[in-house]
């Protein structure tokens, strides 16, 4: 397991997804810091979001655990603790997938949130029924918490 994690970390360090940087938290190969820049054209554009990624002992047979450290107004992320809807990346997990897959999926979710997998139903409702108000609030949170 450790050699696979080292290989993934090395690959992500030298060839990261766009708007992304990864690093270890201390010397622990199982605790990563992921920094995402809100994609251009999204409600999160220009925001700097830190995520905590923990690689489980039975990786790659179980997906990594990921949560937002930076507060974010998003239907798929709990506003209070940054927990991400596990349906987004854990429900179809297989050992052939990797941490890059999870990061790219989360970047995609910043561009196109998934209201059908909401952990914040009120935000999902606002997104679907009053999109401009949702975008305005998301941008306000970016300015307040992700600068």
UniProtKB/TrEMBL annotation:
Gene3D superfamilies: Ubiquitin Conjugating Enzyme. Keywords: ATP-binding, Nucleotide-binding, Transferase, Ubl conjugation pathway. Signal peptide: none annotated. Its EC number is 2.3.2.23. It is an enzyme of class 2 (transferase). The keyword Hydrolase does not apply. The keyword Nucleotide-binding applies. Residues 1-147 form the UBC core domain. InterPro entries: Ub_conjugating_enzyme, UBC, UBQ-conjugating_enzyme/RWD. GO terms for molecular function: ATP binding; ubiquitin conjugating enzyme activity. PANTHER family: UBIQUITIN-CONJUGATING ENZYME E2. This is E2 ubiquitin-conjugating enzyme. The lineage of its organism: Eukaryota, Sar, Alveolata, Ciliophora, Postciliodesmatophora.
């Amino acid at each position: 397991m450790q050699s696979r994690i080292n290989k993934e970390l090395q690959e992500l360090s030298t060839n990261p997804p766009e708007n992304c940087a990864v690093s270890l938290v201390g010397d622990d190969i199982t605790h990563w810091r992921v920094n995402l820049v809100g994609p251009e054209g999204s409600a999160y554009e220009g925001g700097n979001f830190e995520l905590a990624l923990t690689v489980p002992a039975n990786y790659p047979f179980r997906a990594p655990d990921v949560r937002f450290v930076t507060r974010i107004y998003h239907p798929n992320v709990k506003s209070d603790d940054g927990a991400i809807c596990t349906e987004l990346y854990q429900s179809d997990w297989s050992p052939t997938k990797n941490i890059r897959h999870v990061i790219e999926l989360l970047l995609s979710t910043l561009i196109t949130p998934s209201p059908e997998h909401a952990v914040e139903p009120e935000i999902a409702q606002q997104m679907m029924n009053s999109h401009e108000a949702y975008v305005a609030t998301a941008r306000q949170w970016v300015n307040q918490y992700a600068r």
